Amino acid sequence: MQALVEQLKSAVASTRATDIRAAFAADGDRFGKFSAAFDDLLMDYSKCAVNDEIMALLERLAAEGGVAEKRDQMVSGAPINFTEGRSVLHTALRNRSNRPVMVDGRDVMPDVNGVLSAMGVFADAIRSGALRGATGKPITDVVNIGIGGSDLGPVMATLALAPFHDGPRLHFVSNVDGAHVADTLKVLSAETTLFIVASKTFTTIETMTNAQTARRFIAEALGEAAVRHHFAAVSTALSKVADFGIEEDRVFGFWDWVGGRYSIWSAIGLPLMIAIGPEDFGRFLDGAHAMDRHFETAPFRENLPMLLGLLGYYQRNVLGYPSRAILPYDQRLSRFPAYLQQLDMESNGKSVTIDGKPVEGRSGPIVWGEPGTNGQHAFYQLIHQGTDIIPAEFLIARRGFEPDLAHQHRLLIANCLAQSQALLKGRTLEEARAQLDRQGMDATRADHIAPHRVFTGNRPSITFMHDQLTPFALGRLIALYEHRVFVEGVLFRINSFDQWGVELGKELATGLLPVVEGKAGTEGLDSSTAGLVASLRQ
Ligand SMILES: O=P(O)(O)OC[C@H]1O[C@H](O)[C@H](O)[C@@H](O)[C@@H]1O
Fold it and tell me: What is the active site of this protein (predicted)?
């Protein structure tokens, strides 16, 4: 593979691939060649530094890296998360075809479908008002207590699907900072609030601490006996849930072959289902399943996750770009960049290959972003004129949900297209100078100012366009990015499915708590940490 990476580097130099502007000038049909569509979802990557030679090399890279083989292993239940000895089967959670998926010789689909229908019954009971609080009042507010994968997916998707939200109000508490739970509880009435404690392991300190605070909130307002009416749980650790005192018929399980950051499709999606209803939640799963089938069957140049993964790998490891910006032109996708940050950075932020050797070259990039147009007035400056090249990924819907405000949607679209166009075109010194001349600036000052108004251009971007952000479209979009992360992980030759990098901080926090509480001394600590503790005690 390394030889191919070197070949790609020389192809970039010999074909001057990074002069994207020149490539557009030379080929009137560049968009036709370097775009692909899956139903209404269009992916335009013509504004990336690619050409036929590079695409052919990337296709070879995918083949040599064994991406298709690894994909088939993943979806068929092979334990590809070998550091934890687990299968990786988020695709089974949305396997709407119901074809059997075997783990340890057993089809997991009956369990998957069983939990899904139990979730549906519970969600419907809350939504209809049949399931009530301890004092007989219907539930008006649902609070999800979880963090990381047990929080980001439900938060992101609930915001994204606001036009479909016809269930009770949803709230999300994640941070161990008491401010989070306190501010949330302040506006809630115990009688009409249901808490969902969401934790794959049911040991995460933030979630367990917030759950205890919520438990006290109910017990103090309504008495200890009321607690069971106001709690439900989602976890793989069913015995730990029982210890917390949550009734069995309000516990929704999932399995160790579902990674936290891939768990929105499992019972972790319960808050979303309560918000939008089981039918729309089903459509959300359908969208992801459609993308799974596409990933498994579409040829390379039509395969969106393959293309996105290969382009991501190329931009990181061949062109050496350090980060990527996720820029949804959709206010309801405001948490999508944060969601992708966990998905991508927790999956591919690794330095050791599957053989236990240091990664050659680079692994996953820094992923960040905010919705447009807001970002335009904040950090886009650096994307346009900074010293790093940051590939941008734009996302826009052809239609919004506000027919009365269609003119605002058109303005949103124009801004989205203008940004990718500006990144591509840039502005030369001559153009900048001519513009200042036209404005009547005197020649000496214009010479002085013009360089500051130069944009190099040739900055890469990908634009995704879909019809509308429906549950189906959101499911499809998330699955697209999951598979892109998978493809890149295979090419980086890492295990994308563990997260040992988050452990050390947790262990140290446990050790530091007694020190912070003043029950243990600072002996043996580095002088910085000891100094910070001393400052705390002043
Ligand atoms: O769902 P839980 O077991 O509570 O885990 C919540 C989160 O915490 C961990 O530290 C991991 O880094 C995440 O991948 C996980 O999603």
Answer: 346 (proton donor), 377, 506
Compute the distance between CA of residue 209 and CA of residue 434 in angstroms, rounded to an integer. 63
Which pLDDT belongs to residue 244? 86
ipTM over the 0.90 cut-off = yes
Bridge pairing between strands 141-145 and 102-103: unpaired
Ligand 1 atom nearest the C-alpha of 198 is 1
* 138 DSSP assignment: B
Q: For residue range 27-48, list pLDDT tens digits in order.
A: 999 999 999 999 999 999 999 9
Distance in Å, CA 202 to ligand 1 centroid: 9
Burial class (CB in 10 A: 0-12, 13-18, 19+), 26: exposed
Which residue's CA lies nearest to atom 8 of ligand 1?
Answer: 148
Q: Ligand 1 pocket by C-beta < 6 Å: which residues?
A: 147-150, 199-201, 204, 207, 260-261, 346, 499, 502
Q: What is the pTM of this model?
A: 0.97
Tell me what pLDDT residue 333 has. Answer: 98
Distance 204 CA to ligand 1 centre (A): 7
Helix (H) or strand (E) holding 193, with range, is strand 193-198
Residues annotated as catalytic are 346, 377, 506
Residue 309 is assigned to a structural domain of this protein: yes
**Helices 52-65/2-14 angle, 10° precision:** 170
Q: How far apart are CA 307 and CA 487, in angstroms?
A: 9
- Percentage helix, strand, coil, to 5, in the chain? 55, 10, 30
CA 156 – ligand 1 centroid, Å: 16
Query: Is 512 found in the same domain as 492?
Result: no
Atom 11 in ligand 1: which residue has the minimum CA distance? Answer: 148
- Most informative mutation of 270, 499, 506 for ligand 1 (most atoms within 8 A of CB): 499
Among protein residues, the one whose CA lies closest to atom 7 of ligand 1: 148
Instruction: Please report, as a single letter, which amino acid is at residue 5.
Output: V
Please list the alpha-helical segments (H only) found in 298-405.
304-313, 336-341, 347-348, 380-385
What total of structural domains would you count in the chain?
3
Distance CA 54, CA 319 (A): 12
Which tokens go with 67?
């991406």
Per-residue pLDDT, 245: 83
* Residue ranges in the chain whose pLDDT is less than 70: none
Print the domain residue range for 392: 18-49+298-425+460-498
Radius of gyration of the chain (CA): 25
Q: How far apart are CA 52 and CA 42, in angstroms?
A: 20
